[in-house]
Amino acid sequence: MNEHVSIGIDIGGTKIVAGLVTLGGGVLYKQTVPTATEGREQILFQLQQLIKDCVKEAHQQRLPTLKGIGIGTAGQIDFKQGIVRSGTSNIKDWNDIPLKQEMQRLTGFPTWVDNDVNVVALAESHLGAAKGYDNVVFLTLGTGIGGAVIQEGRLLHGEWGGAAELGHMSVDRNGPACNCGYKGCLEAYASGTGIANRMKHMLKNQPERYDGDIENITARDVFQWAAEGKPFAKSILDEAMDALAYGTVNIIHAFNPSLIVLGGGIIDQHNWIISDLENRVRSLGISSLVQSVSFKKAAFGDEAGVVGAAYQSFLYNEFVQKEGAPHET
Ligand code: BMX
Ligand code: ZN
């Protein structure tokens, strides 16, 4: 076994996944923990533990020397400096963290950091569903809604890395308050937290429809109730799909992609969303733009984040590059 191997870490609003990933996108070991709700110190501690376990596992599997650590994290990331500049309340206190520096100091490994969905875009465009496409938009539906844009073959970062927060595009200026501070964001309707919150809001105003504890309702409940034919849950999912369709058309109008890749936990469990979204989008917006887009599911499924995170280390690591490995997208 002489393939390059690195540690990939995917930090989301609900879980952190860490693993040993090969240059070819194989995951040799993987561990998942719930994201600490206490905030940054605990999350940094979790990261250290996860890295320790990965290093131990690499020894046990007699893997070659690890090339480094790649982190993809939810939040607005200064990707050159590896700093988490800010984050929505999906992760407590996840702001102003020199993550790259801190991890390098604690572990001694060269470390790269970018937004969680930007790294999904790296994995999918080098090895997965978007291979061979130059203009692609990525949307993940999970705790939040994350976005990434590949424009003319390159990942769009903006001035310092905060570009493509597509979940925080408003689809209704009179809509519900979002946890980012804005109003009517796509995420407030169609993410896991958004769907649960919309359901809670509806049932609080119509308590006769539900006799359980409204505060404990999750998106999973809403999907299940809708599948059982309960009209109140169906209407929440219809609202979510409508918001997703309008949001997607806005994105198509802005970027003229040839492909939209959908991923994240909600897509993994509910494939029908992709074809339903495609049908809705085709009947909205500027015809030449909405008719020329294809839709695909992320090829790496829920491993896209951890593979893409590690992939940064292969793309940006000079030693790997000298040996003829991939160049930046
Ligand atoms: C939120 C935002 C994005 C992130 C997206 C998906 C934060 C903390 N998160 O919109 O940066 O990409 O969620 O994240 O600002 P996930 O938690 O669903 O994986
Ligand atoms: Zn928002």
Tell me what the structure shows:
The chain has helices at 40-60, 99-107, 116-127, 186-190, 192-205, 219-227, 231-255, 265-269, 272-282, 287-290, 304-316, 318-322, and strands at residues 5-11, 15-22, 27-34, 69-73, 76-78, 83-86, 111-115, 136-141, 145-151, 154-155, 259-263, 294-297. It is α/β, with parallel strands linked by helices. The chain folds into two domains: 5-124 and 302-323, ATPase, nucleotide binding domain (Nucleotidyltransferase, domain 5, 2-Layer Sandwich); 134-297, Nucleotidyltransferase, domain 5 (2-Layer Sandwich), CATH 3.30.420.40. Helix 5 packs across helix 7. The longest helix has 25 residues, at 231-255. Bound molecules: 2-acetamido-2-deoxy-6-O-phosphono-alpha-D-mannopyranose and zinc ion. Residues 168, 178, 180, 182, 185, 187 line the site of zinc ion.
Would you kindly provide a brief summary of this structure?
By secondary structure, this protein is α/β, with parallel strands linked by helices. It contains twelve helices and twelve strands.
